[in-house]
Amino acid sequence: MSTDAKHVWGPLTEGLNIPHDLDLGDRARALDQLGVTPGAHRALVGRVNETLPQRAAALLVSARQWPVLAHRMHRIAQQGVPFAAHLARIAPDTAAWRDGPPSDTTARLLLAAHHALTTPLDQALPTGPRVSTTAARSRSATTPDTAPPKQPAPTEPAAPAHRRQTAPAPRQGHGR
Q1: CB atoms < 10 A from the CB of 17, how many?
Q2: Residues 6+ positions from 156 with CB-CB distance below 8 Å
Q3: CA triplet 125, 127, 129: central angle to 5 degrees?
Q4: What pTM did the predictor assign?
Q5: Is there a contact between 49 and 84 (Cβ–Cβ < 8 Å)?
Q6: Which entry of 26, 63, 107, 131 is 20 to 30 Å from 157 by CA?
């Protein structure tokens, strides 16, 4: 598996078939590997430039991972879905991806574009990372041989992990 295929794996590739020898260093080759023809690519870039502010469009199209996002947009367009309407949701000056350190702007923009393209128009865009159940399952290291013993079923429904409150850890003295 190529280094690019390994590094790009994550939210941007969710639901996509990425070639094991993906080469993002050669944009034309990467687009070809992902099935985006030069004509389709020109149309995608034009649509992005029409939809997003100039700086955001330039950042998105110039990103090393652009071919992966272009592949997703191309697939969406082939399905007859108006991807520009999805993408327009990240255009406002108040969009969440704009907040944060300048060094992470491109990464936040790529992820925001991914969320905009994969979230139905009638739903709000996620404001934080979205966990894929497929990715979570594939990352699990627990196998039947190493699984912890089953616990008895609780008598009350447990709160989801992100809603549980825990007591603060006791402070340790400094021995003075």
Answers
A1: 8
A2: none
A3: 105
A4: 0.66
A5: no
A6: 131
Q: String of b and e for 46-55 (b: at least 16 CB within 10 Å)?
A: ebbeebbeee
Stretch 52-72: mean pLDDT: 92
Please answer whether residues 11 and 130 qualify as being in contact, where contact means their C-beta atoms are separated by less than 8 angstroms.
yes
Which amino acid is it at 103? Answer: S
The answer for residues whose C-beta is within 8 angstroms of residue 10's C-beta and 6 or more apart is 135
**At 34, which amino acid appears?**
L
111, 97 Cβ separation under 8 angstroms: yes
Burial of 23 (0-12, 13-18, 19+ CB in 10 A): middle
- Whether 61 and 27 have beta carbons less than 8 Å apart is answered as no
Q: How far apart are CA 151 and CA 102, in angstroms?
A: 46
Read off the pLDDT of residues 93-113 as tens digits, 9 standing for 90 and up: 778 888 888 878 888 888 889
